[in-house]
Amino acid sequence: MAVLLVYISKCMTSTFCAAIHHHINLTPNGYIEPCCVWTKDDLDQEFKFTQLEEYKNSAQLKKFKQDLDSGIKLPQCRLCWRQEEIGQSSQRMMYNKWLTRDASKLTSVEFKLGNLCDLKCVMCNGENSSQISTEYKLHRQKFEKFDQIIMKPGYSNIFIKSQNTSDFNWPESEEFKSFTDLIKDDLKEIILTGGEPTIIPYVTRLLANLPNPENVRLTMITNANSTNTRLIEILKNFKHVNVTVSLEGVKDHNDMVRFNSDWNCVVENIHRYKELPNVSIKINHVLQAFSVTTLIPLIQWTQAQGLELRFTPLFSPLHLTLDSVPAERIQQFANELEEIDSPTAKIALEALKTHVFDPRLEMIRKQHIGLLDEIRKTKLSSLI
Ligand SMILES: C[S@@+](CC[C@H](N)C(=O)[O-])C[C@H]1O[C@@H](n2cnc3c(N)ncnc32)[C@H](O)[C@@H]1O
Ligand code: SF4
User: Fold this and answer.
1) Residues with Cβ within 8 Å of residue 253, at least 6 apart in sequence
2) Which terminus of the chain has fewer CB atoms gathered within 10 Å of its CB, N or C?
3) How many other CB atoms are found less than 10 A from the CB of residue 318?
4) CA of 193, closest atom in ligand 1
5) Does residue 187 line the site of ligand 1, with CB under 6 A?
């Protein structure tokens, strides 16, 4: 009883996070992080998936738990604090609502099983997309020239991440099989992302080997560009599947920002998921500079389809955030949003309230987009 009371009092603190107790995020390089929005501090000790026991018993994790349980705002959780400060729902709040809390068990894992991807979305990076990594290597000289323009202390840019050449085949190792054997009986929630989970071959293998899929709630974050019939069959075995489809706009807007994407395939695949009885679908949009043009048609399309639309703030690079867009254009966007009768438009309007235009970010955005238009033969520059 005393233990239960201590636990309940911890949960009442405004910084409590169920993820630090019951969840881990596996990065595309096979490292363990407490969650997907954790901003690693340079001094943080790193643990590979092969070191799960060391991670769980580390003095570092104990300190993180203690701090969050007792009202201390860890700087590594800054993305959540920022969301909460502007009155929006944070990842922490989502975990607290959603995660199964069973003693001190690891009940939830986000799997990023490498960086294999069929797209090169403008706001993404090589650590998450094999296509972006390849494009960077193919045009290294041009990107390196651009790196020099934007390099500034404290400016973490996508191109440095894009040079990541580490091993992304770790999920086919015997060690990964041992890791999943260790955790699979306790799993109640799984998040699949990537890379692109519908084309990463290790995803179906992982799901097919779970002992009790009927007890597991699955979330799959996908670009919905590829069809994977074997995966669709496996999804039917799960308790519930939340398919989150990432869209940056409608039709050619989406195909341009999510480069290589084919809108007709995306719509067809959304219909395929809709037909499954245990699946619910949500749309996720990353609020970013292009949103000033692409978001309103997307709000209208999701309304017409009866689909829920959610937002993620852009983490990096800074020059693609809304702060790279001049105030007059933001005001015009706000006026257009005000005319739409939709709760989603109101949420987007709230996010605009913290807008601060930075002309340096605008200059860098124009250079970056100009470079991509030249390499990809796109017209991204015409979007803003
Ligand atoms: C890296 S993707 C991997 C899953 C899948 N390939 C997809 O695009 O949905 C996971 C999520 O991160 C989002 N994302 C990509 N770049 C981002 C950025 N710079 N900031 C915030 N979210 C981003 C994507 O839109 C997607 O919803
Ligand atoms: S589809 Fe997902 S992983 Fe691939 S480039 Fe786009 S955001 Fe990144």
Assistant:
1) 290, 293, 294, 297, 298, 383
2) N
3) 20
4) 4
5) no
Interacting residues of 31 by C-beta distance below 8 A, sequence separation 6+ = 46, 47, 48, 49
Structure tokens at 137: 């290597």
Tell whether omega for the bond before 297 is within 30 degrees of 0, i.e. cis.
Answer: no
- First-to-last CA distance in the chain? 59
Is the omega angle on the peptide bond into residue 195 within 30 degrees of 0, that is, cis?
yes
Q: Is 86 left (phi over 0), alpha (psi -120 to 50) or beta?
A: alpha
CB hemisphere CA count around 317 (13 angstroms): 27
**Over the stretch 167-181, which tens digit does the pLDDT of each residue have?**
788 999 999 999 999
Are residues 265 and 300 in contact, defined by beta-carbon separation less than 8 angstroms? Answer: no
Please give the distance, rounded to the nearest whole angstrom, from the Cα atom of residue 9 to the centre of ligand 1: 35
Task: Identify residue 36 by its one-letter amino acid code.
Answer: C
Q: Is 196 in the pocket of ligand 2 (CB under 6 A)?
A: yes
What single string gives the DSSP state of each residue in 55-93? HHT-HHHHHHHHHHHTT---GGGHHHHHHHHTT---HHH
Lowest mean pLDDT among 5-19, 128-142, 204-218: 5-19
Contact 239, 278 (CB under 8 A): yes
196 touches ligand 1 (CB under 6 Å)? yes
- Return the domain boundaries, the chain: 2-100, 111-315
Q: Looking at residues 314-324, what average pLDDT do you find?
A: 92
* CB 112 near ligand 2, within 6 Å: no
The predicted-structure confidence for 221-237, as pLDDT tens digits, reads as follows: 999 999 899 999 999 99
Beta carbons within 10 angstroms of residue 80's beta carbon: 26
* Fold classification of 111-315 (topology level): TIM Barrel (3.20.20)
Please state, in angstroms and rounded to a whole number, the distance separating the CA atoms of residues 186 and 7. 20
Quick one: pLDDT at residue 163? 61
- What does the pLDDT read at residue 157? 57
- The CA distance from 348 to 296, in Å, is 10
Nearest ligand, measured from the Cα of 129 = 2
